[in-house]
Amino acid sequence: MAKYKLEYIWLDGYTPVPNLRSKTQVKEFASFPNLEQLPMWGFDGSSTQQAEGRSSDCMLKPVAVFPDSTRKNGALVMCEVMMPDGTTPHPSNGRAAILDDPGAWFGFEQEYFLYQDGRPLGFPADGFPAPQGPYYCGVGYKAVGDIARQIVEEHLDLCLDAGINHEGINAEVAKGQWEFQIFGKGSKRCADEIWVARYILNRLCEKYGIDVEYHCKPLKGDWNGSGMHANFSTEYLREKGGKAYFEALMAAFGEHCEEHIAVYGPDNHLRLTGLHETQSIDKFSYGVADRGASVRVPHSFVKDNKYQGYLEDRRPNSQGDPYQIASRILKTISLVPKP
Ligand code: ADP
Ligand code: MN
Ligand code: MN
Ligand code: MN
Known about the structure:
Blueprint: E1 2-11, E2 20-29, E3 41-44, E4 57-68, E5 74-82, E6 105-116, E7 119-120, H1 141-144, H2 148-162, E8 166-171, E9 177-185, H3 187-206, E10 211-213, E11 228-233, H4 235-239, H5 243-255, H6 257-262, H7 268-271, E12 286-288, E13 295-297, H8 299-302, E14 311-313, H9 322-334
Parallel strand pairs: 1-5, 12-13
Antiparallel strand pairs: 1-2, 3-4, 4-5, 6-7, 6-9, 6-10, 6-11, 8-9, 11-14, 13-14
Helix pairs in contact: 2-3, 3-9
Bound molecules: adenosine-5'-diphosphate (ADP) and manganese (II) ion (3 copies).
Adenosine-5'-diphosphate binds at residues 105-107, 109, 167-168, 181, 183, 229, 231-233, 309-310, 312.
């Protein structure tokens, strides 16, 4: 038997964006525990905007477990928050009710800024660095500074160690801005991995005295905001597709534009302006290889007139909740009859 350090992670009750919280429980296991072996646990909801002080207990229900290579015998345990009865989801628990489909695949592109001393990493104390242009996928001290890449690489390794399905990383358009991509089958799986990857990044940055800024438009002026493009496909889109179905799907996306925007992250009007590779927040459009559209249709999708494969919804932002984003996409898809 060995003592395992189980880091129970949950989302608190703050709005519009929940914060990640976590605490450690030590338990003995013969080997790395699986989900079924992990007990429910509790916490003080009055400190996380999830309960009143007089009746403050909330429960933590493990829903996914990942190895934590930063600790000896460490595990990261993603949890849902439950009421004291242990079976009723807490009102703040948005994961419990989302739509899921193992045949639906998601690829989220999480953009974010690294921040130090109240400004993006690499910005001078006064004024601005050279304008955007050389930073995207840039290399060299002038483009990315001296510490950012170390953090980004460490984060990638920790996520891969955890079994998180990172598909890539890149420096982004603004100075101090980066991206990682996670691909997953099923909305819960992919979204759990995004939240745990965010957790790992926030925690990793502590020792550098750096914070992660997830806000979608932290800088005014001619600086890109941060998105979380949601690439998605269903079994039907991958195997059947077709122009008529695609057009019906896009019509449904257009019709439900407001419901999508409602869960695509706060303050998105600051980012979806029609500039900086975005469409305006109140318009819906799609286009092949069009990075100024709401939905970008990859070349591979329209190849040989098949209209098969995945689509990229470019509107979700960096602070969005991947549970809600994936669920809304599935909801709109479910409204469209398959020919
Ligand atoms: P870009 O920056 O050009 O928009 P990225 O390479 O950053 O593209 O992201 C593309 C994303 O598309 C990746 O996260 C990948 O996982 C995802 N993806 C690829 N194929 C599929 C698919 N069939 N279904 C869902 N997502 C997919
Ligand atoms: Mn990308
Ligand atoms: Mn990007
Ligand atoms: Mn993209």
